[in-house]
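Reading a protein record of the kind used here takes little practice once its layout is understood. Each number in the token line that follows is a code from a learned vocabulary of backbone shapes. One such record is shown here in full, so that the layout can be seen directly:
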Amino acid sequence: MKYLFLVFFVLIQCFAIGQQSVVFTTENGSVDFVSDAPLELIKAGSSSLKGALDTTNNAVLFIIENRTFHGFNSPLQQEHFHENYMESKKYPKSIFRARIIEPLQWKSGTTQNIRAKGILDIHGIEQERILDVTLQYLENQLNVTASFEVALDDHKIRIPKVVSKKIAPLIRVNINAELKMITKN
């Protein structure tokens, strides 16, 4: 149902503009993160990233349900992530809404490095960000990869002093998604 909302949102934007457009979507992209602190390495990920790219206006939207992250060092670590840091019940989703800055090449078999400028909403705190993204163009498919850092302070995620050597203040995030073409008007 949530996926349908995402597709509906993107399609409404396409039709409102009234131009020929191509929309690419995914509902199973991956998001992995790494916290490399002096006393502990924490890795977790999710393969439930939902996203869309509208070629009419180069709008991008990616959404991840925070509760879908798994792979922590222990169940207790996962519980602390959801309850104490991300507060997943209060802030169930992390979202990136953006526009692609550079003109897209759209040539099958090529790769392009672009920048997406928009709002990264994590833990209920919105931050304007410009993310470096690699696009690989294939027939009816677009592969998207990105790697960037998120400062916990920027999103008001507080780490108690007692565990400050176990959780890094900068978290490395990696995105990998295959977006399939869903419509051509």
Notes: The chain has one domain: 2-184.
